[in-house]
Design a protein that fits this description.
By secondary structure, the chain is mainly alpha-helical. Helices cover about 65% and strands about 0% of the residues. The protein has helices spanning about 5-15, 20-25, 30-45, 50-60, 65-80, 85-95, 105-115, 125-135, 150-165, 175-185.
Length: about 190
């Protein structure tokens, strides 16, 4: 139940915005197409809260917002440098997006697109649920409310700890790990 809609979003992303498609769209200057497609794929999930969905939609309405988002997204997913450097650049990109009413640079917004695009590599962070799950799991999660590499690295460490502990269950990717975290930390599953 927790996996299928996330995997479906990844498959839609892979067909529409895989590396080759994303590069071709960027080369053609189709930044609005990239941004609206990315947001459209995410919108069919329940990963972001409605106010976060609205903040992202507002941020990419202008050509400059779509350009910043699209080029930053490609750089995060496929750009040069260490994971730390790429993640920090992505955080700066999201922080610089135009803002109307609510801030765009929340943990869910910063992590959702990488998670959908590359679920073997990137993790999605819902702060309250993840902190509760880490506490229940006995994992010292270094959470800070402002997106930073330290917290993201801690999230990846938490995910790798779970992957190791659940090896006999054969988690396929971060979707399985994030789903485990959600079930462990959400009040939806008592």
């Amino acid at each position: 139940m927790e996996r299928m809609y996330k995997w479906d979003a990844h498959q839609r992303w892979d067909r529409a915005l895989g590396r080759t498609q994303l590069r071709s769209l960027l080369d053609a200057g189709e930044v609005e197409e990239i941004a609206t497609t990315a947001v459209g794929i995410e919108s069919r999930t329940n990963l972001l809260f409605s106010f976060e969905k609205m903040a992202v939609r507002d941020a990419i309405k202008s050509t400059s917002g779509a350009d910043t988002f699209s080029n930053g997204l490609f750089d995060w997913l496929y750009g040069p440098g260490t994971e730390k450097a790429k993640f920090e650049r992505w955080c700066n990109v999201v922080d610089e997006l135009p803002r109307r009413q609510t801030r765009v640079a929340t943990w869910p917004v910063v992590t959702v697109f990488g998670f959908i695009a590359q679920p073997r590599r990137h993790m999605f962070l819902k702060p309250n649920v993840t902190r509760t799950a880490a506490d229940r799991y006995g994992f010292d999660f270094p959470y800070r409310s402002r997106p930073s590499w330290e917290t993201y690295r801690g999230l990846l460490d938490f995910a790798n700890t779970i992957r190791t502990d659940l090896a006999n269950w054969r988690p396929r990717d971060m979707i399985d790990i994030q789903s485990f975290i959600w079930v462990t930390g959400s009040s939806e599953y008592d």
